[in-house]
Amino acid sequence: MRIDALLSFVPIGAPLSLVAGAGVDVRATNIIDLLGLGVGVVAPSTASGNPIIGNVSTFGAPDAGGVGGIRPELNITTGTAAVADTGTPTLNVQLQAAADDGTGNPSTWQTLGESGELTVAQLVADRVIARLPWLPPFPENLRPRFLSLNFGIPAGTNFSALTIASALVTTVRDDWFQRQAAKNYTVS
Known about the structure:
mainly beta, globular, Jelly Rolls, 5-stranded antiparallel β-sheet, 188 residues
């Protein structure tokens, strides 16, 4: 698997704890800036003579950073297994995008894709819990500069243990995904 350090929401070796208050969502450690300058850095504008193509006042990628050809994929793995604390918690992994608010910070986060509700029984240790394709932004005119992962936990529930070991962007799938396939033969 090829990994760019700038394309990791949760880097390897720095697990993210999802233990929080009841119903509190947890945002990934890193926010990916498609411009590459980093959160809080104002993008150059066409008015100042800098090289943003078009007539927009702030940078935004129309296709979530180069979707097309080989489509990148997100690979999210657990570290510590989930243990329910309050209620029956579930986890929904959401790929989100936001435009530049004009000050170099994300505006309102929009969900581009999500895993669906994962139960405590599905959130065992050291497992891939979500593979999300790198999706074009929606709504069509979003033009995001920032991408993030949000780990959604329903209101009134929480975990007493659960970590995300890594959340990475990769261009290849290097796991043996057929290991769970039903066998089509028997040996007698």
